[in-house]
């Protein structure tokens, strides 16, 4: 009975994979036809094409559109193009299916006599659905920390360019072109803003939009000062200096909090590992002497 159920599960899995591969192959061929009509050569790997086809499907798009938090996280990570959103949608759909298939296969092979057979597949599917979003949230938090650190370098460079007589847009273009290695994350956002400005949009509105999408306090405060400088034409140098001092104070406070937490953690580690060894070294001879005395 277990062998027949295992064979039926494997056949169902193979049929599902075959059907999925056929659908993805048809979508890949359709994309190749469109690219050839546009005069573009298909140079993407097959796996990437399958992921894009799965992400651009109706199921993949619905998995991303149903959750507004996912849209916010993708904007915060800088994944605003249709290609990157399609890749995330492919992982959002594919990881639960893969987790379900693996859990069913492992259960049939190694735990065939389990009473409640639906618990492990359900748990694996839920974990597979939540895992891409949790990884996305962790990546967004890491990127926000990088932006906050890069702002501390961005403001002094911006003040130097302002003092040399450059306007706001000229300064941003210089930093976006020459500061790629020093501020990679921030210059990427600046290039996106300037690309929209080149298409005819207003710089202040685009900075405001970028600050709302990223939701980083340091970047938002800097964009407010830049908008003030754009509309008023001056009087923002003192504001930039005050913001730089404020950011330095915030960073110093965070470092002090981190050091205090680290000292508490190290005290726990010392009590767990160092104190037993110290007790053995100091009290070991005395305990040995007492044991010999009682034994005699």
TrEMBL record:
Taxonomic superkingdom: Bacteria
Signal peptide boundaries: none
Species: Pseudomonas mohnii
The entry's keywords: Cell membrane, Membrane, Transmembrane, Transmembrane helix
Subcellular location: Cell membrane
Record membrane topology: Multi-pass membrane protein
A Pfam cross-reference name: T2SSF
Domain Type II secretion system protein GspF: 154-282
Protein name: Type II secretion system protein F (GspF)
TM spans (from-to): 6-26, 86-106, 118-136, 268-290
